[in-house]
Each structure stands twice: as C-alpha cells, then as structure tokens.
Amino acid sequence: MITGFAMGIIRLAIDTPVKMIEGFAYEQGSLLWIINNIFFQYYGLIIFAVSAAVMFIVSYMAEEPDYEKIDGLAFGLVSEKYKQETRDKR
Questions:
Q1: Which end of the chain is more exposed for a tag (fewer CB within 10 A), N or C?
Q2: Cα–Cα distance between 9 and 14 in angstroms, integer?
Q3: Distance (Å, rounded) from C-alpha 70 to C-alpha 88?
Q4: Domain boundaries, the chain
C-alpha cells in the first residue's frame, strides 16, 4: 500500500506544476515528461502491477508465521481444535 501511495503522490507532484504554472513544461522525452504524459488509467495499471510485485517479493522474503499465534485469524487457518472449542461454547 505504501508503494502505491508513494507512486500516486509522485505522479501528483509531477502533474501539479504543469497544471498550475502557466507556461511550465518538462523537456520533451525526459522521464518527468513521460510520467506526466502517461494516461492516468495506464499509470493506475502500472501502480497496480508494481504494488502486486512488491507484495509478492516482500511475502517471499519474510519468514513463515507462527501458526499457533495466528490460529483462527482467518477462515482458512481455523484448526479442528479451534472449531471444537467454539462449538463447545454454544
């Protein structure tokens, strides 16, 4: 989320001077000019792809969680022991 937010803020910072300052333009062909001229929906797809890549990379670099600590946190992690405990409480 932080990566996508940062990319959005960067785009906003690049687009703002062009819209707010009369006669302001980036040098044609420069990186700032290219980012400024990418259609916003295409830039949204770029943000999505980069954010997904960062999510996968960080997930694979992180160590595996302790399953005893996250037992019952999500439906797929509910153990038979946890199911039995909740049934007994009824």
A1: C
A2: 9
A3: 21
A4: 2-64
DSSP string, 16-67: HHHHHSTT--PPTTSHHHHHHHS-HHHHHHHHHHHHHHHHHHHHHHSPPP-T
**Phi and psi for 58 in degrees, rounded to 5?**
-65, -40
pLDDT along the chain (90 residues), means of 10: 95 94 93 93 96 95 83 72 77
Q: Which residue has the tokens 């959005």?
A: 8
Region of 21 (left: φ > 0; alpha: ψ -120 to 50; beta: rest) is: beta
* Residue 12 · residue 18 · CB < 8 Å: no
